[in-house]
Amino acid sequence: MPESQAAPVPAPDRGDVWVVVPVFNEATVVAAVASEILQSFPNVVCVDDGSGDDSAAQITTTGAHLVQHPINLGQGAALQTGLSYAKARPGARFFITFDSDGQHRVEDALAMLDVARSGAADVVLGSRFLTQQTDVPRVKRIVLRTVVALSPTSRRLKLSDAHNGLRVLTKPVVDDLKITMHDMAHASEIIGYLAGSDWRVKEVPVTVNYTDYSRSKGQSLVNGVNILFDLSMKQRRKG
Amino acid sequence: MVVIQMVLLAGVTLGLLLFVRRWHGVRMQAGKRIGLVAFGVLNVYAVLRPDDVTWVANRLGVGRGADLVLYLLVIAFILGMLNFYLRFKTMDRRLTELARTVAIREAETVNRERGLLGPHDVAVSVPTVARTTQ
Q1: Residue-level pLDDT at A155
Q2: Which residues on A lie below 8 Å from B117 (Cβ)?
Q3: Is A226 domain-assigned?
Q4: Are A66 and B20 within 8 A, CB to CB?
């Protein structure tokens, strides 16, 4: 969006927004990603999920809050930690989840925040398939489409993209949500939670930057099998 | 072979359903233990009087008694593994809650020192997830 560059909105305007960035071994890019987010959002919390590299040190070079898992717990756990930290801060009303590998665009997050702020939805999810983004790698497209097709919950919500890391959640949702799937299955878990709730969910088209870096870290086909297994073994709370 | 196949498949399916649905608490716990003891007793009996087991096996459509014991062992093994898996998941969840609480508490101190949190922002927050008891 060109106008957002021409007239930058003063930071205090978004003091009620927290951006949660789960980080695992992203030392090469995390500082740049965090700094970029900080230009638009004053509150950023990076959750270092027990990285073996100096991700944590890189985060402290920026103005982002740092929460450090003492051991590696998985991306879902990192997200929940970040949300728990952020929601304990006074005045927090909106929560944005944002991947640390630089694949998301801040302007997409801003557009999604506008939708949430307008009161049209309690949850806003990014989707790379609403506008037929063309450069999604083909294998990835097939995997993601399959996950959507196999998941009855995302079909009920009529979602086009079940595994996008860019989301905007409002405070009541975050208060209620408990991510228990610690690895990649958390994305499906969140969708399942939303489908079983009364929250109003909206999808907004976003663009995902498939850099070589993010490509090298993305989910593989094999991971899809793991996700399905974990979800099918999920313990029902009330049997 | 039809009877035994049905019995075995029904056993596995029922066991899986019960386990995953987590018929949690005292009843399931007791059920598991009774099952374990019964299986042990059955095996002792099978060693002492193999002919009796063979008789039962023939009735069920299995050739030898030892085969019947083997089939039951397979069921017991699957259920045992599943039990282990679910218990492991519970442990994992507890560990995560512990690590999360520690991490957030530590982070509040660190980020206050970095000047990111004001002194008024004291909430020693216990994440809500940590309160789920198992």
Answers
A1: 62
A2: 65, 89
A3: yes
A4: no
